[in-house]
Specification:
Blueprint: E1 3-6, E2 9-12, H1 15-33, E3 35-36, H2 38-48, H3 50-70, E4 75-84, E5 101-111, E6 116-129, E7 135-151, H4 159-226, H5 232-266, E8 275-276, H6 281-296, H7 308-327, E9 333-346, E10 348-349, E11 354-356, H8 359-368, E12 372-381, H9 387-454, H10 460-494
Parallel strand pairs: 3-8, 7-11
Antiparallel strand pairs: 1-2, 4-5, 5-6, 6-7, 7-9, 9-12, 10-11
Helix pairs in contact: 2-4, 3-4, 4-5, 4-7, 4-10, 6-9, 7-9, 9-10
Amino acid sequence: MRYLKNKNGPKLFTTSMKTLFFIAFTVLFTARANEINESLLITKIRENSHQVNTLKAQGLLNEIKELQTNELYNTDLYLETSYYKTKEQALIPMNPVFSPILDGKIGIRKNHEFGLSSDLSLTNNIKSSTSGTTKYNDLSSSTLQYSLKMDIWKDFLGRTTKAQLSNLNLESQKADLQTKIAIKNFEIQMRRLYWSLVANNESLKISDELLKSANSLLAESKKRFQNSIAEKDEVARYEALVAQRKGSILLLEFQRENLIQTLKLALPELGTDIQLGQYNIDDTITKVLACTETISSEASTPNHFTSYDELAEMLKTIKENQKTVTSRYDDTNALLFGSVKATGTSSNPNGANEYNGSLSNAFSDLSNNKRSGFLVGLNITIPLGDAKNRTQSVKEAYDRLSLDSEIEKIQSNNNATHSQLVKSIRILNEVLRAQKINSAQLKIRIDGVRKKYIQARASVDDLINDQDSLLSSELTTIETRLKILNTIFDYLTVFNETPCDFNRI
């Protein structure tokens, strides 16, 4: 240790100590920062997970489609203008070539959801000519026009348009709901992965304890061999057992690394050095059983526990709307159109061979002289042949089969998932109870066989076989607990709103 001296006496050189403390703190903090548990996983997923962002982006596609369609029914203000000039000359004096010509138009138009489209516009025209014997200066006209188009048959009062818009809105809501379901399922997928990692860790603990036991027995057998109490084959048997235990541990470590790698790929936000935090398996199993009790209290399928029931209702409405749209596919198109307009002009003689006008006088003429007119028309399109009728039949069959099958799939999946869960959990709990009894009895037997082995009343194979049985029993117990968790996870992917603590992480 280095010391420095100053006027205040010797002092411990603290720079190295500070550095060591900083490094130790950094290592400790980093290790703690990368410790994972269920709550941390869900927090990372909800904060800014790239997987969740991808799901949300996919869900926005239907909303974009709906918004783009709704744009067609916005009110638009439009402006048009043009300027024309030529050096052409009139072929005959009575037919002048007008140049320059200035046109301008301003209007408001709107497509309505109930089969109408309307347009209100004001058009101005200013033109001049010096190509003939008569001179024209700024001859002006202004036209105010209102036009209306109305579907009077196929889309009368917007019966198909409203159904299409309703379906677009429902598709957007459906996409939002499916995104919510997908995010919940991704969370459950990560929780499955986490508990697989926990199960792997528990298996490693058990295997490590048995490796220590095998090493202890190997050391003891070597002493017995040196004291001519045991044979060489006994030592070889324990050496083989140690190698076997090490191999099992290495395989479990390989599985652990695969699980961690999958977790890193799904949630890179977790960092590179991932470690398990504290967990309580018994507490988790207790929550699972409490959740099972909540589920089993529902005699019939609890559709109020799932978002899929809402999804099925949306699909039913979409089906009815689509039926309305498709039923009009082969109909006659009948479009009634008309317009009303008023025009004002300004073209005043100024001597024998000259006319002058102005835009302001054209406006004045428009408002004062009431020169108006109207146009009414009807456009009818009748499909001939049966091409569109055949297409309509196929579309109706497709809509019915695709939507009905999707609705039936949701309903049957809900019913089957609920009816099967309680039975599965009950069976697995019985299996778990039997495995616990088996492990407890094997531990008692091993203690007895070990005493007999020391007294040379039992063979080494008897002891090893019982240890293997205990290892198998405890590993199977871990697998059964994991199956219980995965079974409830399977249920929660469908009934994602189940009101129990295990589903509220």
